[in-house]
Design goal:
This protein is an all-beta fold. Helices cover 0% and strands 45% of the residues.
Length: 66
């Protein structure tokens, strides 16, 4: 990911996948991307899974769902 972030609040950043269905390429878990946060210089995505539980994934392991 590019380090050209638009900082919103509470370290949240804008991202093109926000609000879209995404897949964690490590676990193949799917959900809706709800937030992207900068933690220790890295982008971490928070997605709401089909089981209605939130999970976090480094954005380098996140892609849009098909």
């Amino acid at each position: 990911m590019d380090a050209d972030w638009t900082l919103l609040s509470l370290n949240h950043v804008d991202h093109i996948l926000l609000g879209r269905r995404v897949v964690d390429t490590r676990s193949m878990r799917e959900g809706e991307l709800r937030a992207v946060v900068v933690e220790n210089g890295r982008e971490v995505g928070y997605a709401l899974g089909e089981d209605h539980r939130e999970f976090d994934v480094p954005m380098k392991h996140m892609r849009a769902a098909s």
